[in-house]
Write a sequence for this structure.
């Protein structure tokens, strides 16, 4: 009877001792959790929170840190041309680098699914992520070197250029003063005395080292003695220099070499009426000339400096060149993340589209990309956060003379604070600006992660 009454009365309140035990257990669990979290909180406060607060406070003081200046550092920041350049370059980085990386990662992730040895290909593209930015900067500083003997990119550019356009064999050749040749404003040389059909002219040049002569060069002396017919004008282009000394300036000596491969023109009334290329002994001839006076001209193309490639690290191309190095490092990262999202796509939607007659481009544009939009957004925003704080590549790859042309906010902050400016107040203001630019992207990414988890 008693048990029946207790059952009908419902659950009885727990004894005070049970409540105390549960409270102590919860308290003990909180203490244990706090003990485990405390080291992480301590590190977070020491390495993140304190530096941020200190930088914010320091930005309101002058370079010495003794005098409060309020917002003067922020005002000065936007009056400084170098800072404005840094803001402009950072904007270029934020727009160009994440866009290219996300696009490349998407294309490569889709293509990798269709090739054999996909794992090896992914490993090859992801490998640059294991290289530090310092090492990558040194690698690309050498690759972008303007000397084709050192820089691999300029070596390739020079090879392609020379394959379609012949380089001059005599970039340093010049005429002696007072020896019958005058230099024009365009770099060509012409005879000072007029010549007529039936004459033979000698055009002596210097400035060519004997070891730089073409292998087929022959002595010019036999050619200088040849007589021209009544309707032709002959000549010889030679190196007016005798090894070991001796010889006569302005006259072809027996041991002097001809300069083969040079272009010569017969000029009358300011127009070239005939042209010829010198033979192995430096000789040339113009045939079928009308009677009258002519000037013999050696065009400027004979003396053009050799093509040296592209100035990758000049003021114009230094920022695109550094972005190219950044792409080399991070393309694998974007490809792997997008590839993971691609692997999770519902295959039935793709197969249904193929059965309905859609081609691969239509499937990619109308199905794959829309379904991957959340992954692409996360990758893009993550890369935006990363490029805002890029420092190593810019500082290492950009040479000193163009450092200001390539500077971004992170490098400008370092240069102003420690790289010669010694103004930690202005540098702290730049750091606060960089933090304010990064926070919206970070908040967006965190919300995307929370949304995906829900």
């Amino acid at each position: 009877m008693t048990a029946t009454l207790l059952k009908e009365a419902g659950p009885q309140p727990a004894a005070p001792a049970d409540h105390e035990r549960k409270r102590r257990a919860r308290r003990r669990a909180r203490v244990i959790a706090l003990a485990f979290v405390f080291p992480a909180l301590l590190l977070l406060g020491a390495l993140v929170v304190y530096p941020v607060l200190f930088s914010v406070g320091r930005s309101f003081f002058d370079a010495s840190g003794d005098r409060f200046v309020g917002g003067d550092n922020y005002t000065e920041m936007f009056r400084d041309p170098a800072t404005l350049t840094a803001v402009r370059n950072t904007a270029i980085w934020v727009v160009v680098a994440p866009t290219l990386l996300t696009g490349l990662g998407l294309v490569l992730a889709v293509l990798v699914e269709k090739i054999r040895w996909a794992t090896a290909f992914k490993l090859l593209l992801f490998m640059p992520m294991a290289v530090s930015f310092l090492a990558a900067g040194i690698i690309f500083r050498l690759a972008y070197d303007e000397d084709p003997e050192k820089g691999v990119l300029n070596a390739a550019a020079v090879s392609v250029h020379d394959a379609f356009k012949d380089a001059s064999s005599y970039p340093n050749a010049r005429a002696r003063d007072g020896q019958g040749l005058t230099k024009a404003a365009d770099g060509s040389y012409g005879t000072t005395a007029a010549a007529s059909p039936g004459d033979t002219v000698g055009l002596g040049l210097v400035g060519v080292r004997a070891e730089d002569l073409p292998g087929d060069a022959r002595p010019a002396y036999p050619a200088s003695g040849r007589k021209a017919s009544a309707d032709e004008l002959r000549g010889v282009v030679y190196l007016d220099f005798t090894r070991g000394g001796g010889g006569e300036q302005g006259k072809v000596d027996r041991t002097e070499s001809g300069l083969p491969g040079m272009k010569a023109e017969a000029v009358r009334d300011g127009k070239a009426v005939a042209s010829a290329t010198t033979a192995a002994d430096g000789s040339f001839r113009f045939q079928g000339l009308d009677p009258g006076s002519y000037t013999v001209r050696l065009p400027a193309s004979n003396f053009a400096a050799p093509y040296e490639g592209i100035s990758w690290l000049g003021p114009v191309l230094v920022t695109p060149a550094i972005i190219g190095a950044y792409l080399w490092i991070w393309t694998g990262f974007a490809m792997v993340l997008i590839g993971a999202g691609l692997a999770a796509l519902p295959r039935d939607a793709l197969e249904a589209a193929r059965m309905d007659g859609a081609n691969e481009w239509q499937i990619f544009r109308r199905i794959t990309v829309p379904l991957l939009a959340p992954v692409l957004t996360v990758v893009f925003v993550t890369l935006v956060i990363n490029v805002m704080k890029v420092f190593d590549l810019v500082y290492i790859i950009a040479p000193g003379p163009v450092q200001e042309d390539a500077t971004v906010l992170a490098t400008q902050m370092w240069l102003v604070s420690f790289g010669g400016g010694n103004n930690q107040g202005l540098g702290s203001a730049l750091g606060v600006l960089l933090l304010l630019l990064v926070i919206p992207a970070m908040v967006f990414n965190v919300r995307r992660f929370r949304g995906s988890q829900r």
